[in-house]
Amino acid sequence: MDDAPRSAKTTKPSAPPLPAHAWGTPTLVFTAGIAVAAKIAGVVIAPGLRGIAPGDVVERALLLSGTLSYALTGLFVALLGVSSFELAKNERLSSGIRFPVVALSGLVVALASPAVIERVPRGVAGSLVVAASVVALLAGLSAARAAHTRVLGIVLVLLSTTATLRLVAYQVAVAGGESGKMIVFEVGQAIATVAILLHGGALVLSGAWLASRRGWGARLLVNGSIVLAFALTWLAGRQSESPSVVEQVLRVAIWSSAGMPTPFGLGPIAVFLLPASVLLALVTLVLRARAPSVLAPLTLALVAHGAYDVPLQALSVVVAAGWALLAQTDPPEVTSSRP
């Protein structure tokens, strides 16, 4: 019997080349983790403990929240610098998308910078919403054209529209209140209702996409996050003669997040969106391993919560938008989210 030649070797398919900006992806993932931690500390823990916990505990919570916020600001600015540099020289993207995104991202940084030392004036906050929403909208429309970033792009479009509608709803409701015209105030409520529906749609799309692409483990995590968000909302709204510390913290933190004006018939849903967004962002971060360049921007978009009048949240969505555009130009094999 003739022996088959043993010198032949099977050649493995070569891995796709990494994009030029791939070196920044670990920092992007790290920043997404800090963003989730800062959201929990600054929106839930620190505000909720005021008037409930002893003074020294509140001071420590505020110190933790402030430290995370300052660190997150520096990371956001660094990532925006990297993404702006890479977008400026990336000719695979339309110049009508990348140059406005780079310019408006710089404007967002300029508008958000005073928040480091003082509260941003209301007029500046409105400009911040408009600039960040336009960046997210342009990036989302572009990212939605590629299969591997389509869901991320749609989520950016939905959340940018949500932020714009929330701003319009607030302005209309204030005008109605000042003029004493109830019909004008109700128009503001109707706009706020549409914003809540779009925000909820973004969360449903994100959760469904993660659950459908990641196997049973992802499904358990996504469903568990939704159930936990419902439980936290129920605890925050439960009427009790002697509420626990956890219930008091949740009541102060979560129920104050609904915003103004109150949507028609969707007040509890508006409250539910905060814990749902944070928990789903945490799940997205946990599932990042196979597609960090897509899931890290999705985490930042969810953390931004469709409310860009908060400087850190405006910076978060702008960073997500810039890196979503970079992920769009990556080879699908690099950013594929399929197991």
Q: Would you write up a description of this structure?
A:
This protein has 12 helices and no strands. It has one domain. The longest helix is centred in the first third of the chain and has 34 residues, at 55-88. It has 339 residues and is an all-alpha fold. The protein has helices spanning 25-49, 55-88, 95-112, 122-143, 150-179, 182-213, 215-237, 245-255, 267-286, 292-304, 311-328, 332-335.
How much of the polypeptide forms β-strand, as a percent range?
under 5%
Q: What do the pLDDT scores average to?
A: 84
Provide the structure class: mainly alpha
Based on Cα principal axes, name the global outline: globular
The largest sheet is: none
Uncertain segments of ≥5 residues (pLDDT<50)? Answer: 4-13
Please provide the ordered H/E string of secondary-structure elements.
HHHHHHHHHHHH
State the helical fraction: over 70%
What distance lies between the first and last C-alpha atoms, to the nearest angstrom? 43 Å
**What is the CA-atom radius of gyration, in angstroms?**
22 Å
Tally the structural domains.
1
> What is the count of helical runs?
12
By DSSP, the count of extended strands is 0
